[in-house]
Amino acid sequence: MSKQYALVIDDERDIRELLTLTLGRMDLVVETAATVADMLRSVIDEGTARKARAAGFTADAAGKTGTTNDLRDAWFVGFTPDLLTVVWVGLDDNQPIGLSGAQAALPIWTQFMSRALAGHANQGFDVPPGIVFVDIDKDTGKLATPSCPKVFREAFRAGTEPTELCPIHSF
Ligand SMILES: [Zn+2]
Q1: Pairing of strands 62-67, 151-157
Q2: Is 123 inside any structural domain?
Q3: What is the model's pLDDT at position 4?
Q4: Average pLDDT in the 116-121 region?
Q5: Among 61, 79, 146, 157, which is 20 to 30 Å from 85 by CA?
Q6: Sign of the C-alpha dihedral, residues 147, 61, 156, 9?
Q7: What is the CA 142 to chain-centroid distance, rounded?
Q8: Is 34 exposed, middle or buried (CB count within 10 Å of its CB: 0-12, 13-18, 19+)?
């Protein structure tokens, strides 16, 4: 069974360019989707949507907040491997609501997803062949050493992962 993720992201230029660059090559689409999904998992685990975790949402999930100019629209798009939900909060007359995506849309998403997934076993994301996970130093973006204080694990297409060790926390 193949799984497909379609992501439209307004305020993340890097990710949009990544998709634009690679969508022309079908062999790279699965790997790109996996690396983008991995980036978006950190949004929920430790980024702008971490309040979902604080609210007790534990399933493996990825997502992105969105807020348009002048706080007119608040968005949250988030998905597990089996369920994608988009929440938009705004006014019909396009007046500002004065709330960000994390403030207005994320709590609705969290409550809906918690109920929709209740009783279902947590299902992790598939990792396709050709993806490697590497520990990265958060400050330098280089390969983490055992001395690096802030480390996160990130997915890369094999061959594109950093190879240089963190120069600040070397032995
Ligand atoms: Zn370091």
Answers
A1: unpaired
A2: no
A3: 45
A4: 94
A5: 157
A6: negative
A7: 20
A8: buried
Note whether 112 and 154 are same-domain residues: no
Inform me whether the pLDDT recorded for 10 exceeds 70. Answer: no
Q: Are residues 108 and 39 in the same domain?
A: yes
User: What average pLDDT does range 114-139 have in this prediction?
Assistant: 91
Dist. CA 122 → ligand 1 center (Å): 33
Query: 164 is in which domain, residue-wise?
Result: 130-171
Percent of the chain residues topping a pLDDT of 70: 83
pLDDT at 58 over 70: yes
Local structure of residue 122 (DSSP, 8 states):
P
Residues 139 and 86 in one domain: no
Which residues neighbour ligand 1 (ion) by CB within 5 Å? 137, 148, 166, 168-169
Q: How far is the CA of 33 from the centre of ligand 1 (A)?
A: 28
Q: How many structural domains does the chain have?
A: 2
Cα Rg, the chain, nearest whole Å: 18
